[in-house]
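Exercise 4. Each item below gives a protein and its sequence. For each, produce the structure-token representation.

Item: AraC family transcriptional regulator (Sinomicrobium weinanense).
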Amino acid sequence: MNSELHRPFTVEYIGNNKQKGKLDLLLKENGFNILLVNTGYLGMARKGTEIELASRDLCLLTKSYYNKAHIINDSSELWVLSLNLNYLYQRNLVKNAPSFLIFLISLGYSKITLRSTDFIILLQWFKLLILKYGKHYRNPLGKRFLDRKVLFLLRELREIYFSYVPEMKTEYQYKYFLVFRFLQLVETHFKSEHMVKFYANALHVSADHLSKVVKEVTHKPAKECIEEKLITVAMELLGKKEPINSISNILGFKTSSHFAYVFKKHTSFSPSDFRRQGFVIP
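Answer:
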């Protein structure tokens, strides 16, 4: 067994057909993979179902969906971020993982052809991760599933992903599309709309139904997904020395005390303590 597969995640650059075995191993053993195709063509198959990936395609897939790859030409060049789901679930780290990531894992498969600017942004993140880790990543992460730079990549991916309508192939398309639309709306309205009812009305479902489906897919209630986005942005603003009152206003809280309550509920720190301790974004 390849020792790299025991890591929380693996970042790989695959440059030609001779490295196809490396890609097959990642698809087979590491539960969730983010593929970014730079040049060339790549075919993937599972039980007679085939997809083709070409330049600027972003493909997100979970182990059970596609487990065999065929690099069609020798000039193919792609980047892979492969997450070890056994590491995630055996250590009960799901609650610490971003809801967007859990949504993608549950979805199983999606494919997007990126605009040039979005492709370049993600490509630079992959190159940065390769430079930082390559084959030398060995450090345990304790209670954290992912390194900060991987989380930064996922945040960038989230912003890009929700500006597209991805191709989705799944037996349960309705519930996944509902959660996709919910998270997409959160990305746009999280500062002004903190209540689940707003998103439920926009999606023409009841708040209870939306919360039930969101929790089924992301393992988190809809309200927690909204607050997760608020807290992530709050941390970024605290790191930029933005006044706490201003942060509270920017994020749509009625009072600074309510902002402090929600922030402490999610981080165990008040906003001022978080800033005083000099924490970096987790």
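Check: Residues 136-145 have pLDDT under 50 and may be disordered.
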